[in-house]
Structures are given as structure tokens and as C-alpha cells.
Description:
By secondary structure, the chain is of the alpha/beta class. It is built from 20 helices and 25 strands.
Amino acid sequence: MIIPRPVKAHLSSGDRKIALEADGFVIVADDESRPAASLLRAALEASTGWDIAVVPKTPETRPNSVTLVVTGDGLPADGYRLRTGPEEGVVIEGGGPVGVFYGMQTLRLLLPPDTLREAPVSGKLTALELPVAEIEDAPRYAWRGVHLDVARHFFPKSWILRLIDLAALHKINVLHLHLTDDQGWRFPVRQYPLLTEIGSRRSESPVGLAREKRFDGTPHGGCYTAADLTEIVAFAAQRHITVVPEIDMPGHMQAAIAAYPELGNRDVRGHRGKRLKVRTRWGISRHVLNVDDATVEFCGNVLDEVMDVFPSPYIHLGGDECPASEWHDSARARRRMKDLGYRAEAQLQGWFMAQVGQRLKARDRRMVGWDEVVDAGGPQDAVIMAWRKDGYMGRWAAELGHQVVMAPEYYVYLDWAHSDDESEPLAIRGATSVRDVYTFDPVPHGLSEGARENIIGAQAQLWTEYVPDTAKAEYMYFPRLCAFAEVVWSPAGGDYAEFADRLTRHVPKLDARGVGYRPLEPNDLFADACRLAPVPRMIMGRSRKTPNPGRSVRPFYNEISS
Length: 562
């Protein structure tokens, strides 16, 4: 069976199969299903060499066909039913177009792996076999996200399109693009062209562990055009994926301050009269935005252009890891505190987020922020992405009434090493295995019944300080992203041993797509041991591993420096 595991699935016992034959094969679709039909036709024509027609739905049954229809028969909009049989061929009914699309993706995974290739590998096929089956399915969570940091290292548009396609195959429906940070600004802003002319390029990057303070001496940069990003958004929308952009503020803004020095706290010691450069070290810069009205307006103007490109109802404003030391030392910031009646510099962050959040509200968009937004007293309607303390912050935010996307480091930060083995490539921390990801439950322990409804999903992160290229990115994502996809789609309580068996059968499908995944090892599988000692899904109370000092793993991420 497939990944992610369907809610209900019955495959006929024995070797009962149906065959879809090249001669006369068609895709039947109603009007609402034609976009999914077009994607299926393109995929199958490329991999089989067949010439496939898409024809309108009619009352008669076509055995040698795939039928795609939207039905109101008790299915949620993103749910589907799939049936295969010798009399009717393949029939996929969706509660809406998105449900039809997910049923179509399930069909692609039921077909032979070679149908996931870009061209035929053994001449023109005469028929495709698949099992006789009945499946009814719908997702567990509304937010099933994958994150990519393109600020630390720039990734080309072509590969982001590939990532979207792979995410869609696993029924992930959100791509979170981290577009700006201290080390690079990737989003083009017409009103402020220096953001990309200066802010998109740093003079060098670290080599090895951050604590080694070695650098490669090679400039690194890149930015997207508005057309690039519009293409990414459209490509994702065809696959029912929402692209959520992140413009991190008021911290993680050194690249912007390098481009426009007036955004910084120029009246503090060590910054006065000094023009910052785009940060070349990892970690957290102490240089943050000032809290002047002009800077708030700057951020609002940037966000207006972000919203012009990204139609997503959600706009991520970061709000994480914002040191308050410059505000403490700034006379301008202290005056702002006095005017607002604040006693602590950290309160300025909550004020700042509320101010820029108004720009989003004016265009019916909703703020997403990392869980530090709760610490700072940010807007009540902000969606909180909970990453700290293995989920405790998510529990707190949900109890306070925020909608929450769970993203705890230990389980779903895929820039952590796969294992503590010294042969693993350099990683920021170690280790999060496939099994660790699979045991993650997005619902924190101890959450009240009312707050449980505030957990709207979860997200897997790939920060790229130690991920310089697409090959390393695919290695870090897969196969852990397969486990994550099942966590957020399938019903709770999955058995890891059974998943491990399916994962071994899923790997040829990754091979067919040319995915540079980390090869499975006995520790990823050990099915017999799993059956003897099943691992409960959990998120609270898990002891954190200490990185093996003999490995190339950086033990502390949150280093702050000038």
C-alpha cells in the first residue's frame, strides 16, 4: 500500500489485478476534474509514450479508463474514494477538485513505479497493471507543510518546482518559503531595489562548524524575480499547494539593514557611523530593526509587494530570535517604550508585530509567526508556528486561543542529522531519524479538549546553514519527509513496523523520480524489533539527545554576535 496511509483501504486478496491497456485508454473527467485530468495525462503520456485523450463524463461505463468526478456524496472537499475493477476501470470521486487531485495522486502511487518517470524506459508499454482496490481517504490536518530556507543558501526556481511536485505526490499542501534573513534577501521589492542589489549577496560563507570561524572566501547570492515567484505560486496552485512567504522581522534583518542603514539602531554604541554588511556568519545577529514609524512603514510597503505576488491567505512575519540589546541601548527605542508605557524592551516586539500586522489585515491576510510572538504579546489572531521546547510552546499558544502549526525541533527539523553516525554529512545538530519523525504526534500531551481544535496541522523545516545545494537538500528531506507526510495526513496511531515495510516498497518510487534520498539502513527498518516494542507517538516529555561530540554537529544554534 501507499504513503501516506489511507484512512480506509481494501485490496483484493491474491493477485487480482486490472490492466489499463494502451489501445483505447482514456481519462474521463467532469468539468471540475479537468485540471487533475490534465496533470494525470501529462504524467502518463511522458512515462508510457501513450497518446491519451481526456473526454467528458457520460452515463456509460468505460472499463479501460480512469474516471475523475466531483461528487457531493458525503465526502469532505479534500476527501476522495477510489475504486478499481475490471468492469469500470478506475473511478475516483472527490468531494471537490482537491479531493479528486489527491485520489489521482493515490492512483499514481498504485501504478508501477516506472510511471513516475519522465520518459518510457523500455519502449512503449502495452498495458499498466494495478490492484483491485477500494479506498476512502481524507487528511487528518488542514495544514500539512514543508519549509525551505532560501535565505542562508539560494535555491534555483527549477528545483523549487521539483520540490513542490514531490511534496504534492505525498499530499503535502503548504510550502513555506523563508525568503529573508541576516545572510540574504531573496524577494524583489520595486520600491526598495537595494534589498536585492545589496542584501541578496554576502561576501563569503562559513566552512565547517560555526564555532570554527572558518570561511570560504567565495561570494554567495541570488534572488528571484517577481515572475519567478508568480510561476512558483501558479505551479503550486495547480497541485493544491499554498505558498506561504516569510519576511522575517524585526530580527533576522541584517541584510535589509545593510541595504538601508536607516532601518537599524544607528544611535547605539558600535553601530553609530558604521555601515553593516550582509552577515557572513550563521547564528543570530544582534542588529535588529529600529522601532521608528518610518521603519514600520517600510515593512508595510514591503509586505504590500509580497501580497501582490503571493495570494496566500497567510503571510509569515517571523518574529523569532529578536535580541533586545540594541533597543535597550537606543535612546529612540527607550522614548518609544516611554510613550507606550512599556517596562521591558521585549514588549516592543509585540508592538512592532501588531503594527505591521495591520497591513495584512487591510488586505484580508493573516499573520503567521514563530512562537516567540506569543512571548512578546503579539496579535491574538496570529497563527503560531511552535518550534521550541518540543511542543510546550504550542500547547501554551493553543490554550491561549491561537491557531497553532506544530513544528518542534526534535521531530521535524530536517536540517538535523539523520543519525549520530560519524559518516553522516555535516549537520546543525543530531539526530532525528525516520522513526523519530514517525513517532511525532502534533497534538501536545495535556492539551485541553477545547484547545485541541486549535492545532491546525504541522510542518517540517529545512534550514540551510549546512545545506548548500539541492543534492544535500534532497538527502536531508528524504525519506524523513515521507514519514512526516503520513503523520499529518493519516489517522493517529500508525504502527512504525508496518510503515517501515511500506517505506521499503515506496523507495523505488523515489528512485523513479530521481530523488537523492538517504539510503535506508537497518535502524530505519528493524521491523521485528518494532513489532516487539512499538513506539508511541508523543511530543511532550521526550528527553533531548545530546549531540555526540565526536560528530560534526554544532551543539548550540542560538549564538548571538555582532
